[in-house]
Design a protein that fits this description.
Elements (H helix, E strand, L loop, with lengths): L1 H14 L2 H14 L5 E7 L4 H14 L3 E6 L3 H9 L5 E4 L5 H9 L4 E15 L7 E3 H9 L16 E5 L4 H9 L11 E3 L2 H10 L3 E6 L8 E2 L1 E3 L11 H5 L6 E9 L3 H12 L1 H10 L7
Parallel strand pairs: 1-2, 1-3, 5-10, 6-7, 6-8
Antiparallel strand pairs: 3-11, 4-8, 4-9, 4-11
Helix pairs in contact: 3-11, 10-11
Length: 290
């Protein structure tokens, strides 16, 4: 008797067109893009504008691709990659040894790709009459040894130094290559995003900070930098970064798990292509080749 009831129930469902409705839902889901190849990219705020521009153009040319870009800092992206909550980690610094060990412990085979280069610009408020600083002076400012602009040829005005937060690859790079691995002064203000540094310096006459070249705006002034004790000062720029004359330059990285290569490599190959590298230059970064 139970078998008869079940059989009748199935017939009634068929008569009501239930299977057709299910079929319509599946087609609708596909139309909504659920069948698309989805890629999540997370990490460096320095790389963020470039990744956004590349993703926008890539998706125009590849309608079945959906690329989501999220900032937060290099360390955030690398942690997300380890926790498998992103497909690609953006980083403005190479992986640390302890990070590599964590990936090895999870038996994740990491792939590293340099997608572009960047010049790290030191910026001040446009009202500041200082237009250049030496390597030594920059280090002294961010370690707290120099606290007033008059000590480096400027007005009698307190220096307000801004840096990225500790999870930022830019924070690490500046500490290693400009401050010679010395600690930041306790008075340095750590900002959660590069845009926040630009905004703060634009509003604060005595401020100084550092940003990726693509964040240059007329609201702040870039400084020329000398790494030969003041003999030669070079302003940040694409050409100066390409020919090696600007000393504060660095590569920008994508990291991903080898197991995701089939899904992420087409997007990475696009960035490395002639079209992708033209976008690198258009956004304000340094292409891999001249």
């Amino acid at each position: 008797m139970k078998k008869v009831v079940v059989y009748i129930g199935v017939l009634l469902l068929a008569a009501c067109g239930a299977p057709e409705k299910k079929q319509e839902q599946t087609a609708s889901e596909q139309a909504d893009g659920k069948s698309k190849i989805t890629i999540t990219v997370k990490g460096s705020d320095t790389v963020l504008p470039l990744a956004q521009a590349e993703a926008e153009n890539y998706m125009k040319e590849n309608k079945n691709a959906a690329v989501t870009i999220v900032g937060g800092g290099s360390g955030v992206g690398i942690t997300a990659l380890k926790d498998e909550t992103t497909d690609i980690a953006m980083s403005s610094r190479p992986l640390k040894m302890e990070e590599r060990v964590k990936f090895q412990n999870k038996k994740m085979e990491l792939k590293e790709v340099v997608i572009a280069n960047d010049a790290l610009a030191v910026i001040v408020n446009p009202k500041n009459k200082v237009s250049q600083l030496t390597h030594q002076q920059l280090g002294d400012i961010f370690t707290g040894k120099v606290t007033n602009w008059k000590q480096v040829g400027g007005s009698d005005m307190k220096i307000v130094a801004y840096a990225r937060e500790t999870s930022s690859g830019t924070y690490e790079f500046f500490k290693e290559h400009v401050m010679d691995k010395k600690n930041y002064a306790a008075t340095v203000l750590n900002m959660p995003a590069t845009g926040a540094i630009v905004e703060s310096i634009a509003k604060t006459e005595g401020a100084i900070g550092y940003v990726g070249l693509a964040y240059e705006t007329k609201d702040v002034k870039q400084l020329a930098v000398s790494y030969d004790d003041g003999k030669t000062f070079v302003a940040p720029g694409v050409a100066a970064a390409q020919d090696g004359t600007y000393p504060v330059s660095r590569p920008l990285y994508f990291y991903y798990d080898a197991s995701k290569e089939n899904s992420v490599k087409p997007f990475i190959d696009y960035i490395l292509s002639e079209t992708g590298q033209k976008i690198v230059a258009d956004v304000g970064y340094v292409p891999l080749k001249k």
